[in-house]
Amino acid sequence: MMAECTINDNIDESDSDYSDEDFETYYHPMEYGDSEENHNPVDAEDPELFPVECLTMEQVEMFLNEAVNSVCHILNINMSLAKLFLLFNNWDVEKIISGYKLDITSFLISSRVLPTLQSQQQSANIDDNDCQCEQQQPGSGNIINDNVFICPVCTCSSLKSLGLCLECQHTFCTECWTTYVEVKISEGQSTEITCMAQNCNLLLQEVIALKLPISSYLKLQYQHFAFHNYVISHPLLRFCVGPNCNVIFKAKQSLAKRIVCPQCKSVFCFKCGDSYHAPTDCATIKNWLTKCADDSETANYFSAHTKDCPNCNICIEKNGGCNHMQCYKCRHDFCWMCLGDWKGHGSEYYECSRYKENSETANESAKARAALRKYLHYYERWQNHAKSLKLEEKTLEKIKDRINQKVMNGSGTWIDWQYLLDAAALLAKCRYTLQYTYPYAYYMNNESKNLFEYQQAQLEAEIENLSWKVERAETTDRGDLENQMYIAEKRRKTLLKDFFQT
Amino acid sequence: MAALPRRIIKETQRLMAEPVPGISAVPDESNARYFHVIVTGPEDSPFEGGLFKLELFLPEDYPMSAPKVRFITKIYHPNIDKLGRICLDILKDKWSPALQIRTVLLSIQALLSAPNPDDPLANDVAELWKINEIEAIRNAKEWTRKYAMDN
Ligand SMILES: [Zn+2]
Ligand SMILES: [Zn+2]
Ligand SMILES: [Zn+2]
Ligand SMILES: [Zn+2]
Ligand SMILES: [Zn+2]
Ligand SMILES: [Zn+2]
Question: What ipTM did this prediction achieve?
């Protein structure tokens, strides 16, 4: 059986030396202990829930072979050909069967097993022109008499029976094929090796490649590279992105959901393998990251670490993740992002995250400026939350130190203070999602944008409240902090439920 | 040194016996895998009248790997960089063991007749070739006169 390591939202990835169990009991005190397999109760409504299995290489091979065997049986073809079909059709057995049954010839041509009709004609023409010179037509075996041909690669003549060609009839001697395949494998190729003739893209099937007298080491290498190609072409399989991690994940659907590797703790998106990016989808986050890389210089201007207090103008450095700033001189409470009074931020409507389109943009240069201003609005917030995440990591370290001291001084036990670590972990999770709401909002262009930005603003407000309370945990009431955690996570889940399309 | 493969001997013999018009390729006296190449600038190209020196080397696993070719004479061309390296698909991913020295040299000659600024190696040259072809051609002619004539 396959090893179950169902991963859900409840597995905490930010640090391994404490668990989320207490956090979970807080959320689901009644359900706790209900489930046998998984001590974390599963919320079926959870928009991030994504059951995956961790497979070993052998298990993956078994899984792949099921598809290979069914294609073999249904179409009555050999395994090598079935693998080739699967590799080029995203392992879609039904698509292969219907495509094959509809028109075998064109299916074989598009699978690069048969030459295109065009190149079939071309090679026929070459054979007609009796060649005057043995190297005139490289790529087409030059026939001296019925039994002997000259291999165009090594120019040696050999028996036709010792020559080897694919359906394209480009014949070369076995020795040349062998050397060629050896060179290709040592370059890291396997299933992508083609015919040796120029501009011939017919694929050398696994069964032919492995029958050649190549060393057993290279045969193993070939199988290793081919296995890699099979896994990356399969929409339901994904290698763990962690360096030197051998885990292969298998899901029931190819969705942009969060994977946390139980072995190396890497966190990534199942569908694209990049950093997890909810609520933004795979294509959008790629565009956004490319855009950020392209526009980084313009945007750098905004990444300054200091701002002046809007009340007394003293220079304030941001040293925590919280955007709720308090001037150390005049005690004025303001927002780091918009420099507005914090009082307007705490309430249900949080203006700061919303970008206002300016309608007075008539001429072209004004449009360009407006486009840049729009981008910078989102970029600045994206960057700012990334920075806050880093700063809050330091806060977490400080909290750990303080807990250590307290426990050593006899003030409470580890378990008494666990809730503080849970709060810090939850804060990181919420802020991470919040960061990724900005690319989503930037590309959003429909009626639901208002609703999205409303929910985003609410999430942002609750996260800043949480951050404020975590930073001042000593003086914050535990119940108050836990309540804040509950609200922030609820806002996060609501936003994902409504907008995260995987 | 390992014996020279029959394929290289055959190709060399044929290059000497039936040279490609406008191209001379002579193996080095001490190394049969190293060729001294001279390509004549094609007619009606900015390189007309020039003689361009190249070096061509057949690596150990030739013909499984492509020959290594480089211009020694300076040339103003969007697909050839300052070091003389050539951007030509058959020298890279489109190499096939069925191709030969002869086909490579013919392709290089064709590249001189038809520069391709959309697949550039020398970016500044390609840029000018696209925005101001007349000036680019003038530069190419001047470089030909300066570096590829009477040497
Ligand atoms: Zn051969
Ligand atoms: Zn072929
Ligand atoms: Zn891993
Ligand atoms: Zn993704
Ligand atoms: Zn102040
Ligand atoms: Zn604000």
Answer: 0.83
